[in-house]
Amino acid sequence: MAASPIKSSPTHLASHDVVMEEAPNTDAHRGSPLSHNTEDTYREKFENLKILVQQQQKELQSHKIRNEGISTITACLQEERQENAQLRSKVNKLEQSVTTLQGRLTATGHSPHSSLENGETVLPGPSKQLMDNLVRENTRLRQSLRQASGDPAQMEHLEKVCILLHA
Questions:
Q1: 42 & 76 share domain
Q2: Distance from the first to the final alpha carbon of the chain
């Protein structure tokens, strides 16, 4: 039996070895050092990817928590802005009331810048000039009443004046 020239050819064996190295891993070649290195490389890459996925999941969780915190802070900020706007409106109304009351104090002859002690209240009333005029008018009417006690026309006139004053 003669050996086949193809099998014994050294060039053919060398090309066959090359083909074997490029062929996909099969159970027959798992024990070879080259295929073992390839598996280790893939395993290492897989482990690295697993670690990377875990890191990305942690980072995603961190971003979710941060996003929830920012949402909470944003909601609080919006509520505070609304409350701030309401308080500004209230302050403006109170400032208008203070201005009005200061005007009334000035009109009644009191100083609008006077300060009050604890428990002290100011009851603005008629001005001093108005009170003086009323006292003079009252005195004049009393004198007229004493003099006209016998005259019916003057009594009728005084009654009309009294009715006007009480109205």
A1: yes
A2: 152
